[in-house]
Amino acid sequence: MNIREYYQKTAKACFCVAWISLLLAIIFFVCHLLQLFEGDLLIFVIPIIIFSVLHFFYFRIYDKRVEKLGDKPMQISGQLLSIDHVLVVFMPAPTLRMLLFDSKGLLLGEVRDQNTRWFMWLIPNVVSLLLPKRFILLDSDGQVRAKYHTRAGLTNSMTIYNADDEIIGGYRENWKDSLIKIKGIIYKGNQREWIAVESKASLYSLQLKTIDKKNVASFQEGWMPVEWAKRFELNTPIITFSSIINEQERVIILGFLAAVLHHRDH
């Protein structure tokens, strides 16, 4: 999949939701005319119509982006863990589905919850946030590259495994410090401290530095090169990896971001 296909799928989903909502409003209207229920019709119909109009508006936005990108074939992407700039797009999901693209708009891989069963959509966020989770990192071929396991509770603490189920790192939070901000330690291997993290809970911009003050990665929203803006929305998050870190360390950083970004924009 590439960014054009992502926009096409999103536009189609918004279009379907818009028309289904409009149909539901019409059904309410007909039922009211047939006196199948009593009460103020506007209380039921107006919110549904607003919902329908909003999704039709979103459909037009994504449809125009597809037209803007055109039908020009896109080149083959590089490997997931060798790209320095990774753009993040969130798909609808009960907890997390984080698509990872390169700057040319080609899918590198994704981080998603292993549990995609339908009833997960019915669990309220306030409950889901407290449940343990198992995320996986997939490359563009659908191969598992890493596994991320979080514990139940208020913190985002996580254990990170490679594809062979060997522990390669993790993220640890203190729940008292993490109630109003993101504060914790990213570690490698067997609890060896690597990066101290402290940021606002909103996480719009973050520079990740090792314990010995080396820049290894950054996460930011709100700015991107003009060429990239032709393919992505302006506020698309960008992960930038330093050339000094290896593939395993990139896997750990992606795990940390999954830990703090789940339930965002889903």
Keywords, separated by commas or semicolons:
5 helices; globular; transmembrane helix; Porin; transmembrane; twelve-stranded antiparallel sheet; membrane; 266 residues; alpha+beta; 31% helix; 2 domains
List the helices and strands and how they pair.
Layout lengths: L2 H31 L7 H29 L15 E6 L6 E5 L5 E7 L11 H4 L4 E7 L4 E7 L7 E5 L4 E7 L7 E8 L3 E9 L4 E5 L5 E6 L5 H4 L8 E4 L5 H15 L5
Antiparallel strand pairs: 1-2, 1-12, 2-3, 3-4, 4-5, 5-6, 6-7, 7-8, 8-9, 10-11, 11-12
How would you sum up this structure, described in words?
- Keywords: Membrane, Transmembrane, Transmembrane helix.
- This protein has 266 residues and is α+β, with helices and mostly antiparallel strands.
- It has two domains: 67 residues; 182 residues, LURP1-related (Porin, Beta Barrel).
- The protein is 31% helix and 29% strand.
- It contains five helices and twelve strands.
- It has a twelve-stranded antiparallel beta sheet with strand order 9-8-7-6-5-4-3-2-1-12-11-10, covered by helices on one side.
- Strand 1 and strand 2 form a beta hairpin.
- The relative contact order is 0.13.
Order of helices and strands: HHEEEHEEEEEEEEHEH
* CATH class (first level) name of the largest domain: Mainly Beta
Terminal CA distance: 19 Å
Give the count of structural domains: 2
Strand composition percent = 25-35%
Radius of gyration, CA atoms, in whole angstroms: 21 Å
Helix content: 25-40%
The CATH architecture assignment of the largest domain turns out to be Beta Barrel
**Molecular shape:** globular
* Contiguous uncertain segments of 5+ residues: none
Number of contiguous helices: 5
- Broad structural category: alpha+beta
User: What is the name of the CATH superfamily of the largest domain?
Assistant: LURP1-related
Spatial strand order of the main sheet:
9-8-7-6-5-4-3-2-1-12-11-10
